[in-house]
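User: My advisor, Dr. K., asked me to get a structural model of this assembly before our group meeting. I'm new to this, so sorry if the format is off. These are the inputs:
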Amino acid sequence: MKSLLKHLKKYWFLALLASGFMVAEVYVDLYQPRMMQRIVDEGILGISSGGVSNLDLVISTGVRMLLIVILGGLCGIGSALFTNITGQNYGNDIRKACFERVMHLSFEQTDRFSTGSLITRITNDVTQLQQLVMQVIRGFVRCLMFFIGGTAALLSLDLSFGVIVACAFPLILIDIIFVVWRTNPLFTVLQESLDRLNSIIQENVAGIRVVKAFVQEKREAERFGEANRHLVDTQFTVQVMLSFLRPVMNIVLNIAVVGILYVGSVQVKQGDVAPGMVMAAITYISQILNGMMMLAMIFQTLSRGMASARRLGEVLDTESSIVHDETLSPAAGGTAGTVSFRGVRFAYAANGKTVLHHIDLDIAAGETLAIIGATGCGKTTLVSLIPRFYDAAAGRVLVDGTDVRAWDPAALREKVTVCLQKSELFSTTIRDNIAIGRPGASQQADGFIRQQPQGYDTPVAERGMSLSGGQRQRIAIARALLKRSEILIFDDSTSALDLKTEAKLYEALSRDYADVTKIIIAQRIASVQNADRIVVLDGGTIAACGSHRELMASSPIYRDIYDSQLREEATA
Amino acid sequence: MSGSIQSRAAQQGFGRRGPGLGAPTEKPKDGRQTLRRLLAYFRPELNYVIYLALSVVLGVAAGVIAPRLLSSAVDDLVARDFQAIPPILGMMLCVYILNGVATLLQGFLSARLGQRVIYRLRAELFGKVISLPIPYLDNHSHGDLMSRMTNDAENVSNVISSSLSSLFSGVLMLVGTVVMMFSYSVPLTLLTCVTVLLSVLVTRVMSVLMRRYYLKRQVLLGQLNGIVEEKVSAAKTVTAYNLQDSTIRDFAETSDALTKTGIIADVIGNAMGPLMNMINNFSFVIVAAFGAWFALRGMISVGVISAFIIYSKQFSRPINELAQLYGQIQTAVAGAERIFSILDAESEDKSGDSVLPIDEGIIEFKHVNFSYVPGKRVIHDFNLKVEAGKKIALVGSTGSGKTTIVNLLIRFYELDSGTITVDGVDIRNISCDVLRDAAGIVLQDSVLFTDTVRNNLKYADRSISDKKMIEAAESANCDKVVAALPDGYDTVLTAAGANLSQGQRQLLTIGRAFLSYPKILILDEATSSVDTRTEKQIQNAMVKLMKDRTSLIIAHRLSTIRDADEIVVMEQGHIIETGTHEELLKKKGDYYRLYMTQFAGQET
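Assistant: The format is fine. Below is the predicted structure of the whole assembly, which you can bring to the meeting.
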């Protein structure tokens, strides 16, 4: 929260200016009924001139009133201008700060927030917070002024009108509190049921083949029907609740008007008050009560905005756990391109389950190391520690002999390139997607790219969904290769390639990337058998490590994997 | 989802990103027709419509009468006729309460009416979307479809529930007020109309200006949200390639542009209030000055002036509201138009005379030709007969047409020519439901639903016993995956199944297919992310499970398909080789070469 306020500090003057203009605008709004009253009482009714209308007075006061109103209007526009400058720039600052923070979070922190939630925070919650700030600057000041100023003006007319305000005030307050109290929790329910409905739609559109293949259209329609019913019912309740606010307030307000008329008639009879004053009083009371009505709306923005502010504060207060630890000194004389694991243990913070137990491993410069193992045994986690996507819970990971925590993260990632399991592409051209590694020519993907209607300039639609899995992978591999780092990691990133393409890739790797340290995670024995060494990972520990030949002789797990793929053909 | 189809669909579909960014006001193409059709949704709710109309009439009547009473009270006050005041005040009280009750009823009725209509509209739309044929869904952007079901439906819903009754009461109020004003004083009414014209003029000018900036802002907002969504979702790639700084720069640029436009747009928007206020006061001065002049000449009473002050306010409010409503209604009608265009799309033809369950599972392709895009044939004269209980494998490079064969077999796409028969019956004569019930499919993109693991596994049939479910889970090797989840089979999977790895998701989808006890099992790259030992165990389980059943397997990994009774090697939509693994190896043809590439260097 503190960090949110810190960003607000530099706008204090503009905010003050906006509030000042608002006060002036409201002051004019409050002063204007007095002139109206003068026009009616003195001009039209001619009270002081013995009942003769005074047209000159009407016109001269009218012109003065218009001038003042125009001044008030200009103040109003000025207040809008400064409020928007303050609020929107503040929102922009927060948005940029949040985005920057999110981009620098560790993977673990991103996972903990969840991608969807981070997106909503940067988009929706910032808007809500912005609204909140602008409401407070403008609306709150306005309501308060209307309320206090209106009451003061009313009482200055005649104290007896105060009784009516005193009666109406608690009634309206009860109405507001009741509605806000009842609807606020409903807004959360409403958001949830809307999310649920949207996720059902999304799942069905994306998974339509499964729905159809299993002939489940009817059941999905029923599932949707339930969610739809729930949403509609909640929406109905909220709308009915909200629709209480206005009519009840109107009734109270209008009864107050009747009350003013009654009290006024008594006063006029006694000769204490002129009829025009009664009319001014009616105007004031509707201003006061309207001010309260606006307050009710502001309270809604306020409670929603506060929830958003909390969510944004969470993001801004999360310091990235991946920081360059300057206290650790880089080791002198480390060989470039080496990677070492020293007693590394890793557990995901989310569930506390230990994924890697005491890993010790040295990878030499220029070596090709393959990692093989069952689904979920920790292969991806192991390699993610090298470019410091995650930090080990215990032990040390060294690159070029220097602890990864002593590296500047950007320099480290310049040195280490990971071709991720999931090929994430951006909505730009294929050329730009490949060039994020390094601008230039491309490799394995060349053939198919040339087949695309616009070759390298073909746009990639919807995060690469317009390309097949194999095609996406080729682009992802091409950009990893182009980056020309000293350490290259392939995280099961050839699974969707056909055999010929994959074989060509490995051939190219050993030919053109001989001095690069290569770490390859794969499922196929054929993909790993030519590696200098193969690590067999089992249940988070290194079960065996050695060349294909050595492992065939010594590791039952490796042989088992081998058999599952090759069996009798190996001897054929 | 099949890669080849996706890419083809996208090739035609490049650039056709739907009207996702809703402009503040859009012009519908055929507004009248759409409006008429939208109104038809109200027919079943006729009694609500009538009650709503009655409550609106009641509310407006009370709203129009009240100032009249007020004015006569003021008149009496001025005339010092204090006896006459209390009865008038009593009447005012009644009228005000009546007005309040009527508005309350209006709120209730319009909410109910709106929700009932939107419930039906949404249900109908969803029912339509899931019954659309696969080609339609492949050729339309999913984001676009989504936005129609959410944004457009929401817009229509809002207009129905709120704007409609406001529109009705606004028009009534306008008419009522004008009638009342004329009945008091014709010249004063005409004068008030001048100021109203002025406010309409100002509104128009401002709204043209506003629309331009709102539109610009909408576009920038869409861009910004796009950046956030893409870059946050792909945060891992951004980090891995050290792109944080350039990404942050891009974001800041768009964000700054948005802020600048936003400030302009909102200042214009916010200036409307003070401007209207000025015009209203101008109107007051005119009414007061001319009123006084008329009063001096004895043409009207002073009470009439106070009534006029209220009436002129009442008069300009609905006019401003109506201008606003007009824009809202236009947007909603444009949304409804898009919704109707989906509702009008042709549903999938699932018909077929044969509704008898398939019990053998004999599949035969005869001279099958097929193209996604006319003129670009992807399957050429495909002939294949699969005997019951056999295991057939399709191999070939990306784009060779393997997945297309599956698409054709379960009637996701229609053939150009030739026939496919199952148990000797042309599939066009078998009802889709029967055909698909008989088939169990596992696709490469493992789709799971936000539901418990149990319901995901029992997707085909909820009534299956837990015992059978656990058996199937064991066969598919996903029992261990489930055991590691916090609540076992009752764990609710999150939307994208984020709490599972790709391989684990594939195991669950295999379990789901096993549990549907299919006559024909189709595995399309179903185990690509599963390690080979686990895959081997699944295959062993399958042998038992698929006894007397037909299976069709597509895979890159040759180890996956080696046991097949027949291997079909495909290349660009043609069958180039068929035979068992041994036969094909002996033949030293394409399959042999493929095999050697996979194991290149292995035996040396």
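One thing worth pointing out at the meeting: The first strand of chain A starts at residue 339 and ends at 347.

User: Perfect, thanks a lot.
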